[in-house]
């Protein structure tokens, strides 16, 4: 993936979110218990505004976004589109390599371009699945594979560093993820206390999870069950996945 592809995904997937009809706003979102589509869109718009605030004013500015009032339902499509458009403008105005505050520590503008592309694609999938369960359009394979990489290299170490850490009986456990629909190197997540290591290509592992890039991404983000493996091995994989859980 490159900057142009991430930007295109942010715009295209955001357009799909903005086009969801008001009549669908009450549909429950399976991946986000207690949420309907309206709340999902509100969440995503706020995340766009939060990211824009990080880019323009840093972490202190981003903290102010939570205090902004929620839009009325009838205003939500336009409000969401404005949120996405302002984020795109901020990203376009800045050098992707320029330093930027991020929730994961010091980073660059490119971090936010990548993160917001994935945030938008995943929640577009959530919204379509809510409106018509089982028929959501798959996330583009290249974007999904990059999303798996982001999950492994950004979110897994972040959550391991903030939570109780790796359980003793999972210390050293390794799960390999293999795409079946695009030519991408396998990822092996090896739990090495206190954090984790990601190895690319062929590596020894305790479990192997295969599937399309989209299915692997949905599995990582708790939208789908890992397939295969089965039985006790699947239980271990699920425990590894459960180390990271965020909406």
Characteristic terms for this protein:
single chain; 247 residues; Nonspecific Lipid-transfer Protein, Chain A; four-stranded mixed sheet; two-stranded antiparallel ribbon; 51% helix; globular
List the helices and strands and how they pair.
Layout: H1 3-18, H2 37-63, H3 76-93, E1 99-102, E2 105-108, H4 109-131, H5 141-162, E3 174-179, E4 187-192, E5 195-200, E6 207-211, H6 213-220, H7 231-241
Parallel strand pairs: 3-6
Antiparallel strand pairs: 1-2, 3-4, 4-5
Describe the structure.
The structure is a single chain. With 247 residues, this protein is an alpha+beta fold. It folds into 2 domains: 3-131, Four Helix Bundle (Hemerythrin (Met), subunit A); 141-243, SCP2 sterol-binding domain (Nonspecific Lipid-transfer Protein, Chain A, 2-Layer Sandwich), CATH 3.30.1050.10. Helices cover 51% and strands 13% of the residues. It contains 7 helices and 6 strands. It has a 4-stranded mixed β-sheet. Strands 1-2 form a two-stranded antiparallel sheet. Helix 5 (141-162) runs parallel beside helix 6 (213-220). It is globular, with a radius of gyration of 18 Å.
